[in-house]
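Notes, Module 5: Reading structure tokens.

Key idea: the token line is not a picture. It is a compressed description, and you learn to read it the same way you learned to read a sequence, by spotting repeated patterns. We will look at two proteins. The first is printed below with its tokens.
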Amino acid sequence: MTDADKSMGAQVQKHLRTRLVSGVLVLVPLAVTYFILRVLFHSLTSFMLPLLKPVLGHLPDYVLTLIALVATVALVYVVGLITTHFVGRRIIHLGESIILKVPIAKSIYAASKQVVDTFSAGNRNAFKAVVMVDFPHAGSQVIGFATGTFTDTGGRSQYCVFVPTTPNPTSGFLLIFPADQVRFTDLSVEDGIKMIVSGGVLVPPRYAILPPPAV
């Protein structure tokens, strides 16, 4: 093989590599967006479809799905409209007080409501910091978010660390680590989420380990 052939082969490889990387950078955000929208669409329609099928079951599936989506959005809007008025808030508060008296339902509802309140737009401190922890075994590091602290019966400080899955950060693992096993970084929460959603494509050039905050 001549030098000219080698040069041509190197140029072809560089061209293919550049175009493939460019294509991945375009398709990955689209794929993640499609996945999240698909999950959201399924969640919205699965609630109404069983209620509409006995009445409108003769309609085509795509029409029935569209009606279910519109009906779900309308229901969410009506509930939101009710909660903004004094009487509506009193009614919802009364309903909550009834649910909280049911033995099993009260635990599920209270935990769900607390999680929703924690991750609501009004609470920007749900994720306190981006941390590094050993998971799933020693020597293997993952990015997580410190969400809270507590002290065990021995007086030792423990951190609650949420380790999201990639590329869907809405699911993951809640892990408990001793304070000396949690390494705090200078990464912002936004940078941490970008790294997880992109599967490591969007990575800051460097990060620093910070001293742990006072517990």
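Here is the second protein, with the sequence above and the tokens below, as before.
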Amino acid sequence: MSTLSLPVTNHETRHHRFAILAYGLIAYAVFQGVFLYMIGFIEGVVVPKTMNGPTTTAWPVALLMNVALVSLFAIQHTIMARPVFKAWWTRIIPPAAERSTFVLTTCLILILLFWQWQPLPGVVWHVDATWARGILLALSLGGFGIVLLTSFLIDHFALFGLRQVWTHFRGTDMPAAGFTQRSLYRFVRHPLMTGFLIAFWATPDMTVTRLCFALLFTAYIFKGTRIEERDLVSEIGPAYDTYRRTTPMLIPRIGRRQY
């Protein structure tokens, strides 16, 4: 990936830089809270509202509301992640705050989703055996663990905007973000999304509500990664095109050694 330079103009005051740094720290803190809440929301633990609550809305209306909420998330992610939008958006906001704004907007949409998500009646499957329930729960939590691990393989602090606001505060440039094929990236091109898929689908209690959530986000993941890869091919060039032809997108090839 190309070097991202966030210039600091001479007329910018230290106060202005500090304000952008504080904004980035707030956005990151909101992300941490939303990520933890998402785990509780999906797994049905700790948080005040989970996805599997009592049904209070007719199921066709509830389904439409849920589709609208996930669609809002998908549209925001798709538009704000595109280079053309970023080029226009950073004429309005400081370039150093672009990623933090993306993160904060994503979090606000997820908060709306948690608040307005409508439970649906019915159960698809239920596992009784304690050992099997434990395995499925561990897999789901492990999926969230893969998401977190992958964020550090990418550059966790740049992914969530902290590195950008910190280097801007210091008046330095962002270091180059290299194209990596190490660790989980040897097996799939998008291990972060693979982690989410595992987290969404591995459950001992697949309700219709969770199935709706999993299907909607799975559809977005497959579509969104294909859109993202068009940008990556343009940005990185032949190296990524070769990587795309030799490495699965989301599901590892079983029984084939990866190099």
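Summary for the second protein:
- Confidence is low (pLDDT under 50) at residues 1-10.
- Residues 41 and 51 are 6 Å apart (CA to CA).
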